[in-house]
């Protein structure tokens, strides 16, 4: 498998505080990769090191096969949306978009054409010649996003892309990210919102306190954290059901939650035997579900104390 | 390089398209032109004056005064007088004369008494005695007549008298390699002064512009997007050069204006001195240009670096003051530099990169500087520019991404080592 990004033993410290410690991760090409962690975990610092905005203290970075510290040209093939974003307020929308595209090596005419298409797609065609300062905040965020993707980068690096977006624009953003993946591009984004990551990512890396907690394919992570918990429910109240739930030998633990049960099976108990037994009752089985821990639960379980945000000292990115 | 050009273009267009640029570019020459033309327009009120001369004077002095006042004059702004000479004492006529002034039949009256040779006084009454030109003309005419009469009393002929009282004119000219250049001392000094002050103002103005522009990018968080495509040093270089291009355009427009203006100068009634002041040789222009560009880059880089270390306009203003100080030094020494442009003060200040950009052009206008000295000054200035760019670039690179409080000097030192 080829990788769009490889980090190996990357570290960064500020005066009195280690922001990122010995971080290694691998982002497969053509996937959506989430970097998750609480605020202050070191997500932005990591992405800034990848973009060569700040210089790492140790470790190696391979971005699209090159080290951005030695070969800056590789950055032209990346679209970067920083956590802290802004546009030139006095420029017109299309001028801003084509300026940023040109900085990424796109010809002016192409930049204007592509920018116009993106504006149409985002429903901003009427604002093409307007000054940025006249746009609403949501519109400005769309324009910012266009500046990130207009040069058709192979890799998109989005730092907290969802922050500050209303639900409609979050939807637009999600579609665009999925489209980019479908076109064979790689998308890396950071977030502290586990649900979003769960919906979109194929691979994740969870970091806390500057260190990696776990990473890998999301499905495999889930499988590794699978539990023996099941949820069971019946169409209507039934004595036979009550009896089964009280007496089935494979239960480790049984919790009654309203009309349903949440149970934990003994390590070697076979869930299929439980289904067979439940199906033989006088009421139909309405729910039988293997309860998987959510990413959030895995995260909390893994990170524990480290998930608590720590005070970040005044940062100067030396 | 392409990226630097893109940034230059953006910076240039953004500034040139603003209303304030258009206004200041157009208004400044209009203001200067007004300063030069208005006085001559205001003086052309000359017109006519009708005065009654009440003459009790001995030896035809009154007659001579009337003649002198009514003589046809060359100057454009001269007043044309009509003199009604009446003989006799003033008192019997005073009331009637006052009435005629009130009725605007005449503009005023002059009384030359019988003892004018001894008393040295004449009386003038009019509606507007503040009209200085009339008083000056009167003084000149009466003084001339009285002086001639006194000298004639010593036995001199009229021709001899005229010869004796002639004024002396000092004609000054600048000596240059190209020969003698016209222009008087005063005009040259004023030109040098104006160029020096204008440089200082422009560098300060645009330097603070650079500072504000850096601060805008930093505060609007644009900078992180840009430095992910462009090296921070390229961003700074593009910004400084873009501003330099704007400044050059502005100065270019002003020079163009003044060239056009002086070519029409005589028609517009400008004084000959002001006309000649604007006519400098190509070598002087070249010197001015080189020092302007280098000085501009030097200071703009300093301001840009300073702008990167602060987080608000207020902090920026505080920092702007110490950066201005080296620019103010030439102002303090402006008289020694201008009056002795080859002296040691002028020489020393031209060798210091921070003062040379203002001092050298002033000297170049005022006198001819040995080429070797210009070369040395440029070399030192260039070295200064490179050193400042190097330090400023490092501070800038760290500064634009830093947040929080202003760095201490010790932290700045760490930035220099780190970047």
Q: Mind sketching the topology for me?
A:
The complex is a heterodimer of chains A (318) and B (419).
Chain A: E1 3-14, E2 17-28, E3 32-36, H1 43-50, E4 58-63, E5 78-81, H2 93-103, H3 108-121, H4 137-149, E6 155-159, H5 167-182, E7 186-191, H6 194-200, E8 203-208, E9 211-217, H7 218-224, E10 229-234, H8 239-247, E11 251-257, E12 260-265, H9 271-279, E13 285-290, H10 295-303
Parallel strand pairs in A: 3-7, 3-8, 5-6, 6-7
Antiparallel strand pairs in A: 1-2, 1-4, 8-9, 10-12, 10-13, 11-12
Chain B: H1 2-16, H2 19-43, E1 48-55, H3 61-70, E2 80-87, H4 91-102, E3 108-112, H5 116-119, E4 123-126, H6 132-153, H7 158-164, E5 174-176, E6 179-181, H8 185-219, H9 223-227, H10 232-263, H11 265-268, H12 272-277, H13 282-309, H14 313-332, H15 334-339, H16 344-351, H17 356-366, H18 371-399, H19 409-418
Parallel strand pairs in B: 1-2, 1-3
Antiparallel strand pairs in B: 3-4, 5-6
Helix pairs in contact in B: 1-10, 2-10, 3-6, 8-10, 8-13, 8-14, 8-17, 10-13, 13-14, 13-17, 13-18, 16-17
């Amino acid at each position: 498998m080829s990788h769009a990004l490889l980090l190996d033993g990357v570290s960064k410290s500020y005066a009195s505080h280690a922001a990122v410690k010995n971080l290694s991760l691998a982002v497969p090409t053509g996937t959506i990769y989430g970097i998750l962690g609480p605020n202050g975990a070191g997500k932005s610092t990591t992405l800034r090191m990848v973009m060569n905005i700040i210089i790492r203290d140790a470790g190696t970075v391979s971005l699209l096969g090159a080290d951005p510290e030695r070969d800056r040209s590789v950055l032209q093939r990346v679209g970067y949306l920083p956590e802290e974003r802004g546009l030139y307020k006095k420029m017109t929308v299309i001028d801003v978009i084509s300026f940023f595209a040109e900085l990424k090596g796109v010809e002016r005419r192409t930049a204007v054409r592509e920018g116009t298409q993106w504006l149409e797609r985002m429903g901003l065609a009427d604002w093409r010649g307007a000054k940025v300062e006249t746009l609403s905040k949501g519109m400005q965020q769309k324009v910012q996003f266009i500046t990130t993707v207009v040069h058709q980068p192979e890799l998109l690096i989005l730092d907290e892309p969802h922050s500050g977006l209303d639900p409609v624009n979050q939807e637009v953003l999600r579609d665009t990210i999925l489209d980019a993946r479908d076109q064979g591009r790689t998308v890396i984004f950071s977030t502290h919102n586990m649900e979003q990551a769960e919906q979109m990512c194929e691979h994740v890396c969870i970091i806390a306190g500057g260190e990696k907690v776990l990473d890998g394919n999301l499905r495999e992570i889930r499988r590794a954290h699978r539990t023996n918990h099941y949820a069971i429910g019946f169409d209507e109240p039934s004595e036979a059901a009550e009896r089964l739930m009280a007496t089935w030998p494979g239960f480790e633990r049984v919790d009654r939650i309203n009309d349903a049960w949440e149970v934990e099976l003994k390590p070697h108990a076979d869930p299929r035997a439980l289904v067979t037994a439940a199906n033989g009752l006088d009421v139909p089985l309405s729910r039988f579900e293997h309860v998987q821990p959510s990413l959030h639960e895995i995260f909390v379980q893994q990170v524990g104390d480290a998930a608590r945000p720590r005070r970040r000292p005044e940062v100067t990115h030396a | 390089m392409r990226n630097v050009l893109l940034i230059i273009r953006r910076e240039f267009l953004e500034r040139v398209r603003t209303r304030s640029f258009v206004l200041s570019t157009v208004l400044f020459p209009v203001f200067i032109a007004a300063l030069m033309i208005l006085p001559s327009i205001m003086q052309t009120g000359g017109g006519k004056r009708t005065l009654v001369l009440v003459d009790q004077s001995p030896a035809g002095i009154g007659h001579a005064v009337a003649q002198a006042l009514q003589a046809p004059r060359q100057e454009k702004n001269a007043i044309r007088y009509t003199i009604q000479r009446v003989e006799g004492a003033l008192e019997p006529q005073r009331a009637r004369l006052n009435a005629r002034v009130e009725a605007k039949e005449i503009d005023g009256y002059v009384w030359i008494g019988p003892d004018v040779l001894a008393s040295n006084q004449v009386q003038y009454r009019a509606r507007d005695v503040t009209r200085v030109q009339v008083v000056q003309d009167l003084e000149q005419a009466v003084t001339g007549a009285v002086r001639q009469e006194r000298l004639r009393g010593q036995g001199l002929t009229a021709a001899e008298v005229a010869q004796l009282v002639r004024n002396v004119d000092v004609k000054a000219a600048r000596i240059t390699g190209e020969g003698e250049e016209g222009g008087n001392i005063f005009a040259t000094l004023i030109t040098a002064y104006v160029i020096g002050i204008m440089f200082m103002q422009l560098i300060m103005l645009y330097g603070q512009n650079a500072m504000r522009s850096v601060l805008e990018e930093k505060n609007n968080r644009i900078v992180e997007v840009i430095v992910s495509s462009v090296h921070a040093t390229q961003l700074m270089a593009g910004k400084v050069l873009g501003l330099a291009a704007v400044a050059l355009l502005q100065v270019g427009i002003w020079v163009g204006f003044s060239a056009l203006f002086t070519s029409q100068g005589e028609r517009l009634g400008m004084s000959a001195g002001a006309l000649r002041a604007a006519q400098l040789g190509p070598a002087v222009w070249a010197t001015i240009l080189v020092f302007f560009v280098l000085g501009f880059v030097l200071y703009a880089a300093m301001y840009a670096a300073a702008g990167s270390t602060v987080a608000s306009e207020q902090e920026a203003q505080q920092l702007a003051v110490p950066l201005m100080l080296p620019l103010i030094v030439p102002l303090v020494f402006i008289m020694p530099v201008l009056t002795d442009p080859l002296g040691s003060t002028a020489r020393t200040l031209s060798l210091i990169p921070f003062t040379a950009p203002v001092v050298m052009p002033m000297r170049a206008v005022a006198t001819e500087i040995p080429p070797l000295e210009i070369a040395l000054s440029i070399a030192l200035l260039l070295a200064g520019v490179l050193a400042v760019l190097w330090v400023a670039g490092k501070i800038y690179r760290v500064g634009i991404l830093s947040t929080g409080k202003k760095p201490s000097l010790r932290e700045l030192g760490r930035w220099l080592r780190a970047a």
